[in-house]
Specification:
The complex is a heterotrimer of chains A (about 280), B (about 325) and C (about 425).
Chain A (H helix, E strand, L loop, with lengths): L1 H33 L21 H8 L3 H32 L5 H10 L9 H11 L6 H4 L7 H12 L4 H8 L4 H12 L1 H17 L2 H6 L8 H6 L9 H26 L10
Helix pairs in contact in A: 1-13, 2-13, 3-7, 3-10, 10-13
Chain B lengths: L2 H5 L3 H42 L2 E2 L7 E2 L3 H8 L2 H32 L6 H13 L2 H12 L5 H8 L14 H11 L2 H12 L3 H9 L4 H30 L2 H7 L10 H10 L4 H29 L5 H5 L1
Antiparallel strand pairs in B: 1-2
Helix pairs in contact in B: 4-8, 4-9, 4-11, 4-13, 5-9, 6-12, 9-11, 11-14, 13-14
Chain C lengths: L1 H22 L8 E2 L2 E8 L3 H17 L3 E7 L4 H10 L6 E4 L2 H4 L7 H6 L17 E2 L2 E2 L2 E7 L1 E5 H6 L11 H11 L9 E4 L8 H6 L19 H15 L3 E4 L7 H6 L5 E4 L4 H6 L4 E4 L13 E8 L6 H11 L2 H6 L8 H7 L8 H9 L12 H16 L4 H16 L2
Parallel strand pairs in C: 2-3, 2-4, 9-10
Antiparallel strand pairs in C: 1-2, 4-13, 5-6, 7-13, 8-11, 8-12
The chains are: A mainly alpha (about 280), B mainly alpha (about 325), C alpha/beta (about 425).
């Protein structure tokens, strides 16, 4: 029995390591490419390591445009949209998951439906609207809409809230708590892992968003990192080293945040502990 | 006035009634942020795109009302419509089930109690962090027929790989593989869902002598079903909106073999400047995806299990 | 629970921090900034070429102290951004432009401005360039820079195989001979590179040189042009070179590009414009340039890729915009544009760039560039081009050309008279 367990364990480890290699390979390839000289980009057999390490590629790429400014803008947008999404999406998801009210199902279908229309065709009218508000060429165009919830996060949270036993809030109600207290004191702590999950998704989503900034921002002083990145890829020429180097640099922030946050996600929604 | 009725109302019952009305309002208060956001930011542009789908609008220039013409052209006189729809369906048929199964298996693997699980979780998520052009370039150098890593590795074991992205039969396969790489989001959602399943259920099953496979189908799948529903719907929507990878990696080629429906919508708008037509395309896509979603939702009552709903609905 | 409180206070701190950051971000409307008038200028240039644009803008600001030129660099996203901002009636004041048949209705005609400003010296520009920014006889853009197409060849590889460098007046038969010699599949080394999904625009020089074309000169007919034996033969030649193994087929978009293979010394020859020349130098490739080969005794035809700058019709400060356009077309600014070829003859005379052996073939090709590209001849070219691209794509992947081009003609005829 013990031998079987050990065999099982080493099988799991083997699989984990093999898959990790598989998933890390493209990332590793990206880092190595960013360190190569331009003459080494097309080699056969493919060379993993550069024959000469061009560490200056990073500084060269980063300093070629005001990337520090772009970084600050990206940080602002990412932080503010994430906070907004968390606050609004938890409220709305709780409303959809825990109450029966007139029009709920229709509203929910509409909510889902908003995800099914590609942005290509609503982008121009939205541009006009934001222009009317005076939000074009400001970060507001990227930030403010996220304070009104997003269908993806609301739907995700709803699924988790619905799997929490309802006896919980009945017990709390008997203790005299009102709905907002139940939401705040009971449900928020319970779905905390999902909230962290949403934060992770939103950080990554808004950090990597390209189309939104492209359409709504004009002045370089307002650009986010992805727009800065786009300045390595022109119509006639592509700076492969630059793209790889900057993509690696800007992926550090979400990766570190993810590493710090992932423990929270796997804590689990602690329904059992509170019974 | 119905005097009989008013006589029976006592002050306390008015208060009760108010309270009741107030409590009727509460759910709307919770969903209010989304409703306001929808009305202010989304509804207008949606209506605009719907109205414009009945117009000929070259973006630069005047709008001209043409009735249902965009829609009839699409169905009767535009082979690219059917072609791109077919490409998308082919892609979705492979991508949706594979993506869900892969993400679930990876999540189960990560759910094992092992040392260094934090690191493994991060490693598995790494491909999802890279975005846009860099991702496309990486895939370009992986799949390249002559200098690519994949074909080099294949050649080491004696297989001559195809010219992936330049082959009408392999490009879509390459696209599915590349899309599967970014399963991190789904995997995380599954992982969170798995952690949500009370461990004592497994312990009880173990005591009863149930095998792992029995546990998987009788405990894991039913209790994970709300999450599976979510991932299924999101993957379907995602498959139909698949654009970036095709746009930056193959440009829809070779010979339009990776020309997804979303790309068709995009190109009609921003390459051929037919915004009205593109809007009509988008609304047809909307109807298809909506129908699929509703179908999944309807079926969900038979296979999705919410812990509270059983008591709730009775 | 304690941890959670910490998270919350972190959140609050972030909110406060960011709110304060935001409040300084408020002065962002259009029009004025720090008491200066803001002029929006959108470009698709990137990297070092973008720096040139920024320097020109700064030079303009130096002469006009009350103006701030906002250089908006959209790179690859240029087309989409410009389309969206035109659609929403909020375009940049001045922008790069090439697709005049699509945009001319939203652009300001410049003829009036040019007439009022004789010191712009219109006759100093290469006359042919104006064809690219004129629609129905009206001028919508000032030439900013251009390039022709030439053959780049790797001297190291030529020396290695003891092949003499290409000379003016060489033919495609000689070209193919050389390409065959330079190919060594075991080393993944090829004589030439053919893109499987080329921009049809770039192939027009080839087609013209064989006496073919995509569309009749009056822009009204494609039958007998797009599917003429000359057109088909020229394009088929590219596809056959791939089939015969002397050329590598490179993919579209972000796949391994011919330029990267050239930089790795694995490619003998490729055809390109002036743009990657600096990149090749940076990669320390020992290369030369030559004019495009001819089909037997037929005359070689050149192809110009030009960019112009235009003023939006919706601009609220057209006079200032013109001032900038004029500055941009001035000798001072043109001299700063070193990434492509100068549009003013006087600059060429002064810098003698056309005598530099690397640059000379570009000017030889310019002399031959007398044909008008298809997109200027028919306003529905975009639609027609969709079918043509599909046919060319198939030919490059090894299919037989004639029936494909016949089909492309048949599928496109409906767009001709619209």
């Amino acid at each position: 029995m013990k031998g079987k367990k050990r065999l099982q364990k080493s099988f799991v480890y083997g699989l984990l390591i093999a898959l990790s290699l598989l998933f890390l390979l493209p990332f590793f390839w990206m880092v190595m490419t960013s360190l190569k000289g331009p003459e080494e980009l097309a080699q056969y057999p493919p060379k993993l390591f550069p024959s000469e390490w061009h560490f200056e590629n990073f500084a060269k790429a980063w300093n070629s445009q005001p990337f520090n400014v772009f970084l600050v803008n990206s940080l602002i947008v990412t932080a503010l949209t994430t906070i907004g999404q968390i606050i609004s999406s938890t409220l709305v998801a709780y409303g959809f998951a825990r109450f029966k009210f007139k029009g709920r199902d229709v509203l929910f279908i509409i909510l889902l439906a908003t995800m099914m229309i590609p942005w290509d065709v609503t982008m121009i009218p939205q541009y006009m609207e934001f222009n009317l508000f005076g939000w074009i060429n400001t970060l507001k165009a990227l930030i403010i809409p996220s304070w009104f919830g997003s269908a993806f996060y609301i739907f995700l949270l709803r699924q988790f809230i619905m799997s929490i036993p309802k006896e919980l809030d009945e017990a709390a109600r008997i203790d005299g708590a009102n709905v907002f207290q139940i939401y705040y004191k009971i449900y928020l702590p319970l779905v905390w892992p999902v909230i962290v999950l949403i934060a992770v998704f939103n950080i990554l989503g808004s950090w990597n968003d390209y189309l939104g900034p492209l359409i709504f921002l004009n002045d370089q002083s307002k650009y986010t990192l992805t727009l800065g990145l786009a300045q390595f890829k022109g119509v006639h020429d592509v700076n492969t080293n630059g793209i790889m180097a900057v993509t690696f640099l800007i992926s550090i922030v979400p990766l570190v945040l993810f590493f710090l946050a992932q423990k929270k996600i796997v804590e689990g929604v602690q329904t059992t502990g509170l019974k | 006035m119905k005097s009989g009725l008013s006589a029976s109302i006592t002050p306390s019952s008015i208060q009760m009634k108010r309270k009741k009305q107030w409590s009727k309002l509460i759910p709307y208060l919770f969903v209010a942020p989304w409703i306001i956001g929808f009305v202010v930011f989304t509804l207008g542009p949606l209506l605009f795109s719907f109205v414009i789908s009945f117009f000929d609008w070259p973006i630069v220039g005047e709008k001209k009302f043409i009735g249902f013409s965009n829609y009839t052209t699409m169905f009767t006189n535009d082979p690219m419509f059917w072609h791109s729809l077919w490409v998308t369906v082919k892609f979705a048929l492979f991508f949706v089930p594979l993506n869900i199964i892969l993400a679930l298996l990876l999540a189960i693997l990560l759910n094992q109690k092992v040392k260094g699980s934090s690191l493994f979780r991060t490693f598995f998520y790494v491909p999802s962090v890279i975005s846009g052009v860099a991702l496309a370039m990486i895939w370009g150098s992986v799949f390249d027929g002559e200098y690519g890593i994949l074909n080099y590795l294949l050649s080491l074991i004696g297989i001559e790989g195809p010219n992936w992205l330049n082959s009408t039969s392999w490009a879509l396969v390459a696209m599915v593989i590349a899309s599967l790489w970014g399963q991190g989001t789904l995997m995380l959602i599954f992982l969170a869902g798995l952690k949500n399943i009370p461990q004592d259920l497994y312990e009880a099953a173990e005591i009863d002598g149930a095998g792992k496979i029995f546990q998987f189908f009788k405990i894991t799948v039913p209790l994970l079903s709300p999450t599976i529903l979510f991932n299924l719907i999101m993957t379907i929507i995602g498959a139909f909106q698949q654009l970036t990878l095709a746009l930056v990696l193959t440009g829809g080629g070779p010979l339009q073999s990776t020309y997804f429906y979303a790309m068709y919508v995009y190109e009609n708008a921003f390459k051929y400047f037919k915004m009205g037509y593109s809007s009509a395309n988008a609304w047809i896509m909307f109807l298809i995806v909506l129908a699929l979603t509703l179908l999944v939702f309807k079926s969900s009552s038979t296979w999705v299990y919410y812990e509270n709903e059983v008591k709730n609905d009775k | 629970m304690k941890k959670r409180k910490m998270w919350f206070s972190l959140l609050i701190a972030a909110v406060v921090l960011v709110m304060s950051a935001c409040s300084s971000n408020n002065s962002s409307g259009d029009g004025k900034k720090d008491g200066k008038t803001v002029l929006r200028f959108a470009t698709w240039d990137t990297g070092d070429t973008l720096k040139i644009q920024q320097d020109i803008a700064k030079a303009f600001e130096k002469e006009n102290k009350d103006v701030k030129v906002q250089v908006e660099a959209y790179g690859d996203g240029f087309d989409q951004k410009i389309a969206a901002s035109f659609g929403a009636k909020n375009p940049p004041d001045v922008m790069y432009m090439w697709d005049f048949t699509t945009y001319n209705k939203s652009l300001e005609p410049l003829d009036g401005y040019v007439q009022k400003d004789p010191d712009i010296k219109m006759d100093d520009f290469y006359e042919g360039l104006f064809n690219y920014s004129k629609v129905d006889g009206k001028l919508y853009g000032m030439p900013a820079g251009f390039s022709t197409m030439v053959v780049y060849y790797n001297k190291k590889l030529f020396d290695q195989y003891q092949i003499p460098y290409p000379k003016e007046g060489w033919t495609w038969d000689e070209f193919k001979e050389i390409a065959k010699k330079l190919t060594d599949k075991s080393k993944k080394q090829y004589g030439f590179a053919v893109t499987s999904e080329p921009d049809t625009y770039d192939l027009q020089g080839l087609v013209w040189s064989n006496g073919g074309s995509f569309i009749s000169d009056d822009g009204k007919k494609i039958d007998g042009a797009m599917n003429s034996p000359e057109t088909v033969e020229a394009l088929q030649m590219y596809g056959d070179m791939v089939k015969d193994g002397m050329a590598i087929s490179t993919g579209g978009k972000n796949q391994q590009s011919a330029s990267e293979i050239f930089k790795a010394n694995k490619l003998g020859m490729l055809i390109n414009g002036i743009w990657p020349i600096q990149g090749y130098k940076d990669a320390k490739v020992d290369f030369g340039t030559a004019m495009i080969p001819s089909f037997g005794s037929k005359p070689v035809k050149g192809l110009i890729s030009s960019s112009s700058i235009s003023i939006a019709k919706d601009s609220k400060q057209k006079d200032l915009a013109w001032k900038f356009v004029k500055f941009y077309s001035s000798e001072q600014a043109i001299k700063m544009r070193t990434a492509d070829l100068p549009v003013r003859k006087s600059i060429v005379e002064e810098t003698k760039v056309n005598e530099d052996p690397l640059y000379k073939p570009f000017y030889t090709m310019l002399e031959n560039a007398t044909n008008t590209p298809a997109f200027l001849l028919n306003k529905n070219w975009n639609e027609i081009n969709r079918n043509l691209s599909a046919a060319i794509n198939a030919v490059m992947l090894g299919q037989d050309g004639k029936p494909l081009f016949d089909k492309a003609v048949k599928d496109s005829e409906k767009y001709l008279d619209k």
